[in-house]
């Protein structure tokens, strides 16, 4: 009898989600309520919920999927459109900030709620209130150097396995057009006419897709670390220019001076390029558990490593020169440990390549990417695997009509750092002429960060951005913000001859 009851309970447990979804209709929402406390101790109510949308709006019989969202209502309604905060990635789940008390994200959202209601929308296919679509990446051998050719093969294999690994799911429904349509669906479900978009990195690209495909619903936008619709793959020379700007300040740092070769940090990079062109090296490292491992590092590993320590947020420029100078002086241990970790088998967030392959790249930009002079230094890691594997992913190609920029009258403030190596500042400079009511704030020494963090040291600039969000006013917006020279990290070995 007990086994029968257990069997019935298990059947009910697994069938209940299907029953719940069967009762839902497209654009339904389910909302729960909670409270958080701001830094002054004030109790702030919020709503957290699930938006139900078709997995593929192009198919009448598409199943429904859940996408998480949250809303913090403005304590003092201003009449301004709600701020729709779109996370980056793709594959950044953020709603855990409410339960984990993530003060950084909560501080941003609470500050924005002084302007208007704040709505945070997670990404279909990677949300705590729905599904997280994951693939498996096999381990890469340690006894041979890394290569773009091997990376291309891995990405093609991942694409081929992804559909088979997710039976009953329509992976063709995770293109950038569906991401944009989710914003419109949530807007309707919450009863708003127009919205203000606020996003950085992929969140900016997502916002640009909304502005292209649903322009009527957007009142204005603030975009940072901008990724254009035809700019998902970074131009090597533009990334290299960001490295040069970092190196300029690093070359003048007294703590780094004893470690600098002729030509400074960029001279060290040129010397490393020549060194590894002669052949790979084998490095032995000892792990924290005492395990000794060897890893082979080659010229293409070096190309990848030149960026590996510049894409970690606010401390990008502080540690990168130390890393480069350590390599120049033959200290490969940190690099080797990072590479061993990178080559492990692991999960891959599938909405990244699904969304990227749907946008792809125009033929003109692909030609520029492949023939860019800085490919010799940085390689093709940033784009080769994605372009080669795009036909194997099931998402549709959105086409050049979506990718190529067109004139746009929506007021937009672009905030972009010139030390950004994930989305170089040239992205914003190239888009700005198309936005007749656009305004750019160039942040000197700014890295790949959110809008308000980039201008954190400039209260007047912060107030001006909030005024823009509230009223659309642009007269007090600066054109430039200068961050102080960071305190550069110094190699952990004595300088040569010192």
Search tags:
disordered N terminus; 14 strands; two-stranded antiparallel ribbon; alpha/beta; ten-stranded mixed sheet; 498 residues; 40% helix; 19 helices
Structure, described:
The protein starts with a helix and ends in a 16-residue tail after the last strand. The strands form 3 sheets. Strands 1-2-3-5-4-7-8-12-13-14 form a 10-stranded mixed beta sheet, sandwiched between helices. It is built from 19 helices and 14 strands. Helix content is 40%, strand content 18%. Mean pLDDT is 92; it is low at 1-20. Helix 5 (176-190) packs across helix 6 (202-213). It has helices at residues 2-23, 96-100, 103-112, 148-164, 176-190, 202-213, 236-250, 264-277, 299-308, 316-328, 333-342, 351-359, 363-371, 375-378, 384-389, 400-403, 426-431, 451-454, 459-471; strands at residues 29-37, 43-54, 64-72, 83-86, 118-121, 134-137, 195-201, 218-226, 281-286, 292-297, 346-349, 412-417, 438-444, 480-482. It is α/β, with parallel strands linked by helices and 498 residues long. It is globular, with a radius of gyration of 24 Å.
